[in-house]
Amino acid sequence: MAVKKKITNASLKQLTVAERRINDTEVSGFHALKFESGKVVYYLYYRINGKQANYKIGPASDLTPAQARDLAREKLGEVAKGQDVQENRKEKKRQTEIKKSLRLGIFLEKEYLPFLISRNPKTAQRLYKQMVSTFADYLDTSIPDISAFMMQKWVAKRKEDGRASATIAASFNALKGALSRAVEWGFIESHDLKKVKIPKEDNTRIRYLSVDEEKALLQAITDRNELIRTKRDSANNHRQVRGRDEMMDLKSVRFVDHIEPIILLAMHSGLRKGELFSLEWSDINLERRYLTVKGTNAKSKKSRVIPLNETALNLLEGWRSQNPDKRYVFTNGYDDLPITDIKKAWLNLLADAEIKNFRFHDLRHHFASKLVMAGVDLNTVRELLGHSDLKMTLRYAHLAPEHKAAAVGLIG
After folding, report:
1. What digits encode the pLDDT tens for the residues 231-248?
2. pTM of the model
3. Residue 202 domain-assigned?
4. Which of 42, 208, 231, 363 could form a disulfide with 266 if both were Cys (CB 3.0 to 4.6 A apart)?
5. How far apart are CA 125 and CA 104, in angstroms?
6. In terms of domains, do 218 and 360 share one?
């Protein structure tokens, strides 16, 4: 049997399970219920659209009577404005559940990409595609579930795959930035990605291919090309039998795809991966045998000119003849946008060539090391690599003495 009195700490203590409810004398509809367990909960009766509803304010263990009464007044004020506070709560709960289940891929596409476009339309699609490619394994993960522990394992795997710390950091920071926006926009309360540690790069590490390794890599590329040509022939035979249009005969072209020219150009130019991927045909002068790395694409932000040796010139002439109307030298094959990754093909080639502990970036070291061992002075090597500081180039200095000694030995 309900009692009517002001709800206070004292009246709540006196309330029995048999009485069950106290109706407050100060705020209409405000009441407290006592359950058999002894738990007391505050509620608010209200009417909207001719119907009565009962809104749960909260347990007495969390709220004093005065606090609960103030909340009751606040909710009655919302009701007076025509709001159904119970439905508002349900809607907020639904929205919370939606946000909790929001997957990374959907968030990046529907929320973050439009933001990137608003910031810089020219780079938005490239940044978005890089994130989708880099974090492909996590696109179906709910964004609240993306944790520091999860990302620390991702960092370890990237290092194991031979990715440079700077590359890992750039990709990770892009994701961290996206999740920080998710916090700002109310999709998640917080994230703990600040706890993720990315190991610093050992800049003294120099890894280049031995003569046998270089031969093995080139043979692996040749074998890959032949396998792709064989598969294309088989597919065209299949199409021919069924009266379907055949795909281009790969035996009629030098390169089956962009993998071989990218790797060979890296070996013979020392270009960084990002410089290769952003390279445009307008940056290359085949007649005068040089290419230009624009400052906007260079790590040092300074332009540099790289002469093309016979191998580089020959491959670029062949690749240009296969791609006469493209803006970028290496495109994704679907449109005239630059490629963003060759990880799968690169790792497969290393496995086929049985080459261990070698990153794509090490092709740059391979280029520089061969120059130094051929007797090229370090300052020239510095200019070709685009090092802003000679200290970076001095890492290769140890390769010079023995070859100089060997050269002198020829006349001894």
Report:
1. 998 988 988 889 898 888
2. 0.57
3. no
4. 363
5. 16
6. yes
